[in-house]
Amino acid sequence: MDIQNVHPFVIFFAAITTNNILLTNFLGMCSFLAVSKDLKSSMGLGAAVIFVSTFTAPINWLVYHKLLVPYGLEYLQYVAFIIVIAAFTQIIEMVIERVSTLLYLTLGIFLPLITVNCAILGCALFLVIRQYTFMQSIAYGLGAGTGWALAIAALAGIRTRMEKKSKVIPELEGAGIALVITGIIAMAFIGFSGIVRIN
Amino acid sequence: MQPGVLTLKGFLGNDDRKLADIIVTDHQTLLRMRLNAAQIAARLQDLADRGADLMEQEVLVDNRYRIKVRDDRGKIPSPWGDGLFEKGDVDLADQKTGKTLKWNRLTLRLMQEHGFFGGYGSEYRIDPEVVVDILDLVPVFEDPAV
Amino acid sequence: MTPIITAVLVLSALSGLLTLLLLVAEFFFANYGECIIDVNNGEKTFKVEGGANLLTSLASQKLFLPSGCGGRGSCGTCKCRVLDGGGPLLPTETPYLTDEEQKTAVRLSCQVKVRNNVKIEVPKELLSIKEFETVIESITDCTHDIKGLRFRLPEGETIKFKAGQFVNLLSKPYDDVKEGTSRAYSISSAPSDNKAIELVVRYVPNGMVTTYVFKHLKQGDKASLIGAFGEFFLRDSGREIVCIAGGSGLAPIRSIILDMIDRGISNRKATFFFGAVSQRDLYYVEEFKAIEKEHPWFRFVPALSKDDSDHPYQKGLITDVVARNYGDMKDLEAYLCGSPGMIDACCKVLAGKGMPVDRIYFDKFS
After folding, report:
1. Which residues lie below 8 Å from residue A176, measured CB to CB, with a gap of 6+?
2. CB–CB of B65/B92 below 8 Å?
């Protein structure tokens, strides 16, 4: 597969639709399920995730290809990627605390939890496995973050409307019905397949 | 919940278990004995009301409980952040069983709203097994297994 | 060997670089620069380093808002109006603010972070609150669970207060208590005795500050007092007064009576009913008896609720003793200080005797 020739924009678009890191790969579920109860905080968290993934993807690319590979240290990729992600999560925390204390308190523990959000690490690992170029990794980082943010915003919107209008059986309330809805959205996204051809 | 933060001795006594474990274990005990926290809290508050004395003197209630209610100024914050509760410890000595209890409004609130009865060794622990003896509590709901 | 060293070096270099990046970010984002706090529409302005909460920032400028928990967000006492620059209302504040307060921009100053210029409004009296680094001149055992303390102010400093007001005593860390906190105690000395502050403290079992006072303070120790605060003081109405207190509630009443003597107020009858269980709970008796002898307008009436020994005092519950000493009380005013239960009970008795509720004054530490 000759991935190098695919235009970054295609990668970006694919990361939102056909290769949505949350709906296709089912990564990044825990904060997704917890924060999607409220639309405003979902958008806030989504924006934070976009920031972290957009910056960490190319930086992790640089770290992998310019630092680890030349020294034959590819096996350190997990550690190195996590260190980078942790640092950027710290930075976005500082920014959010500065800009909106209310959002900072509302997101609470889920802000530092972006560090262990498997979607972010997944993003970094995918760009290694799929051998993306530098530009492609920027596009992928941006796309994966946007795809995740889109998914959480969609779910939050649906859950907010459902809260008033639908009656859910008590056993399925909360995470249960959220997972069911996510599955249905994922199936809907399969409808995108074929739009983008990467080969 | 640690000593010295909100109260002198803290809420956990000498208990090393996690908070969730403490709450779950007591909850299991309650289920086993078919009691609930609301009934215990209501009985204790009733005893406190009947044992209250303007000059904080000991009152004999129901011919078996020696109750002394302190009237202190100030409020204690709840560790769950859900409000402030008047100070004033209640000391109860049951002449029939010889057992004693100590509580205040915050203790009852934590029991009722959060299922927290206090860690082992805490002076303010309301142990369900001890309380059922002292208060002669009657099971409140049907055994689900039956 | 070399691969391990390279690995360690590479990871260390990466971590080092990222730490540098974080420091830069912290400098930009967590640094709030200098902020101006405008108090009471320009009456006082302070320049502070941004980033701390309002309570601490004001305290660093010697403006002390009352606080019952030392800024931990667990007492709801440190309220003030934040007119501008306080940011949105936080969920940590809402449990302590009524709807009325929330509508009028009242905030918990320990939860408001100073990030830019802030305009606030505080009660006027607070602008004259001071912190005093005192030395304990004496600690007296008044009863089995009450101590009287006398604190000497530093050389050259004086305290200005109205008889009946209170101060916050700051406790230092001890034993398991890792952080100091503070509690309010009424001043029992006269305002004219302005180079010292006397307090009366009753031991509360498991109380953080009373345990500090009873087990860890001794003569010669240093102690910080902040004050004076409070709306409890003698009104200049010329009416006859009834003072009712129990336990450590004697403190502000003593201050008020001593102040009346100092100011030469001799045309107002004052009766002080002190409720206790038995003789062992009475204290400062000799002093009050001496005042009674010297000043005919003052009467000291201890009331013992459960003492069958041979004593010269009135017998019965304090509420009953007050009731049987008066007929119609519509022209008097009352000053109460004691436990919540006693205050409630006395209010009922006084209202029942015709005293208008707005002339019953009692100490509400909040």
Report:
1. none
2. yes
Q: Is C98 on the interface with B (CB under 8 A)?
A: no
Q: What is the ipTM of this complex?
A: 0.86
Q: Element (H or E) spanning B5, and its range?
A: none
Q: Report which of B100, B67, B103, B58 is spatially closest to residue B85, judged by C-alpha positions.
A: B103
* Nearest-by-CA chain A residue for C87: A101
Q: Please report, for residues A58, A123, A124, A187, the alpha-carbon distance to residue A136 in angstroms, rounded to integers and kept in the order given.
A: 9, 12, 12, 26
The greatest distance separating any two alpha carbons of chain A, rounded to the nearest whole angstrom, comes to: 59
Chain C residues closer than 8 Å to B2 by CB:
176
Cβ under 8 Å to C: A residues 28-87 = 63, 67-68, 71-73, 76, 79-80, 83-84, 87
Domain C34-126, what fold?
Ubiquitin-like (UB roll) (3.10.20)
Write down the CATH number for the domain with range C129-229: 2.40.30.10
Between residues 11 and 50 of chain B, which touch chain C (CB distance below 8 Å)?
none
pTM for the model: 0.68
Indicate the CATH number for domain C241-362: 3.40.50.80
Domain boundaries, chain B: 19-135
**pLDDT band with cut points at 50, 70 and 90 for residue B89:** very high
Q: Is chain A adjacent to chain B, meaning 3+ CB pairs within 8 angstroms? A: no
Residues 295-314 of C with CB under 8 A from B: 305-306
For CATH 3.10.20.30, the residue range(s) in chain C are 34-126
**Which stretches in chain C have pLDDT values below 50?**
366
Please report, for residues A16, A141, A151, B118, C34, the alpha-carbon distance to residue A146 in angstroms, rounded to integers and kept in the order given: 7, 8, 8, 46, 37
Bridge partners of C39? C44, C120
Which of A76, A80, A91 has its CB closest to that of C25?
Answer: A91
Distances (CA, A) of C143 to A54, C53, C83, C279, C284: 70, 41, 48, 10, 10
Q: Given this model, what pLDDT does residue A199 score?
A: 46
The string of DSSP letters for A43-81 reads HHHHHHHHHHHHHHHHHHHHIIIIIITTTT-GGGHHHHH
Q: Determine, for residues C10 and A98 on separate chains, whether the beta-carbon distance falls below 8 Å.
A: no
Q: Say whether pLDDT at B143 is over 90.
A: no
pLDDT digits (tens, 9 = 90+) for A116-149: 888 999 999 998 998 889 999 999 999 999 999 9
Strand bridging mode C146-152 / C196-202: antiparallel
Peptide bond into C290 cis (omega under 30): no
How far is the alpha carbon of C92 from chain B, nearest alpha carbon, in Å? 8
Q: Do C3 and A94 touch (CB under 8 A)?
A: no
Whether A145 contacts A53, CB under 8 Å: yes
Tokens of B63: 């011919």
Residue A4 reports pLDDT greater than 80: no
